[in-house]
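re: ur question from the group chat, yeah i did fold both. here u go
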Amino acid sequence: MYQQLQGGVKVLVKSSGHGQGCLVKASPLKRALCRRMTHFVESKSEDIVEEEIMQTGKDTALVAVQMRITLEDYQSERHLANRIDHLLGSARSRVKPDASAMVVFPEDVGLGMLFIDDYEAVKGCKSIYEAAEVLSRRYASPLQQVIDTHKVSPTRALLVVLGKKLRSRYHRIFSQLARKHRVTLVAGSAPLPDTKRVSEVYNTSYVFDHQGRLILSQRKVHLIPLEQQEGMDLCAGRVEDLRVVDTPAGRLGVAICWDGFHADVVETLVKQKARLIAQPSFNPLPWTPEQAESWKTGLWQACQQHPEIIGINPMMVGRLFEDVVVEGRSSIVAHASQTRDGSGYLAQATSATEEEILIAHISPS
């Protein structure tokens, strides 16, 4: 159902399944939807397309994909590509035919790509640590070479050894599917080595335009313990390297999961006039009532402090191994005053464990 809202835009919010939805007045987006936008993105490590976008005034759909993963999703590159293709097709079928779309996948959607070439060897592993030991034995020689050359931990060395192929697959799958479905695609994230300083590995999110071109590469700044030296031994990105990019939906910034809970990240994106913040998330904890309440101190709270922004927070659910179980309720959030029920939620998943797709249609008034 649509309702004309005077002085703003009309919004239709819906969810696959029975997610929450409400009509909102989203007038802060009007400028972003109706103006000509020019923005150039700088990057020292990635080939980023620099382009000028002319906004046509078309309807736009904001999509959060709550993807339910299993290790079987990563049994081959083709299998994974088909899985993501199906999700994008399902989302596209719910978007108005003449509307553009921005689709956001969860954090660490690329993590399982580490196991694609060795799926048969690791599919019986109970834990990710057991799987890492299997990979370490299979790649013992190049692994030791990286350790000796760069003086890094065995965990970091493993990510370096597997990282080049992972980066190629991550880019290829999401680029091709962004072009196929003609969407702006925030491709969750993956552990990617720096293209020049190969011993450095970052939790990195790629954003592709509707032609499949890479338009933004963003690194996670604030790492959780699982990502730090005693865990995956990733490197932390820098706040000063955060960038935004213009898209048909509006100016976009990316705050990878925990980054969305930190004011320095949010403020940096807002100062660059971000109107949309994508927060791909991977929560390796049970989704208890306490966890759900604490989640509101992230992007939901940021939207209350900055009424001009809308947040898209897709969360991964499911399990890779017995010790990697992820839960959470995805959401699309805005300032409470812009939601009919005052909740601050444009859409929210009904389940913390099952797959869902949330969609908010935004139209110029």
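okk and heres the other one u asked abt
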Amino acid sequence: MNKKRLCLITLIICINAIVSAQGVAIHPGATPPDNSAAMDIDIPGKGTLLSRAALTSVSLASPIVNPAAGLIVYNTTPANGNVCPGYYYWNGESPGQWIRMDNQPCSSPTVTCQTGWNITAGPTTGNLGCVTFLYRNNPVTYTTVRAADGREWLRQNLGAERVASSSTDYLAYGDLFQWGRWDDGHQVIERLGPSSTSLGNNSSASVSTGGAPKRPNDVSPGPDANFYYNGSISYFWWGNGISSDLYNGTTTADVTAGRGIDPCKQLLGGSWHLPTGGMGGEWATWWAAEGLTTGAGARLAAFNSTLRLPASGWRRPWEGALSNVGDEGVYRSATAHPSVGNHAMHLYFSNSGGWPEDNFYRACGASVRCLRN
């Protein structure tokens, strides 16, 4: 028998495809297709694998050329915050669009971010997303979350290796920024343990400001700037500030004696930014929306919130050492103190209480969380 004919017969026997006026059936037996089906596939223990594609946007047909209305693909790659893995069909309208078949936001309370993903957190409190950006000139992907205030926040501190698994998860502590400073290297902290106040060898160096306070335009350009300290309060980093000083620049071109770069704007772009502080600020609004206590137990309450804030401690401005690691959390805001020139507003919490409208020296190193409009 001709080998090609033998192969064809063998293939037909193996798949048991039955063609009738009703349609095509692919069954292990001789069951005809259902009368309502053009194709009826039923192989126990097996699924049907449809075509896969790496969509780039819901509004672009690419990589499919001239898709027909109703065409179904399984998207394999998240992109642009509005495309995530799952089944999509082309609606065939003008202009056309890929429609996710489960009609759900491109996020999930259980999403596990993978390198390179960008997924906007869904509209429900607790929905998670992902964002990819460069930190210390290296690509990182962080988890985001829709908080109780309705805003999307990073669920990780800048410089953290992961989302905190406890209030004292030192791999989630991250780096510590002086007020008005950006991702210039001064903030880098190598953590050595849940309550360790020792600086690892890869931490940024501490350098005295000398006989005068330093300001943003005094920072030397480059990726490895120093953490500034001084034993005299008068000579602290930005120790001669005023209430109109700004922490909202985007690039080094924005830097002046009275304006620093917001690291959230610098790194994530778009509408990402440092939260505002003080009465009525974004930290206070978030704290109230989450229903967090200002009394005893605030440290654990901050961790159990949607943001999973760890007690990362802070860096002292008078010699550059770490302080209260595992006991306190100090989180930067973009807001200068309204009357004390060397202070800025921030979120503070400890075992004894939480104060979303607190303030302290601009020169101390504090954690950074970003949010976007």
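fwiw on the second one: The longest strand covers residues 138-146. The helical segments are 3-15, 263-268, 282-290, 298-304. idk if thats what u expected
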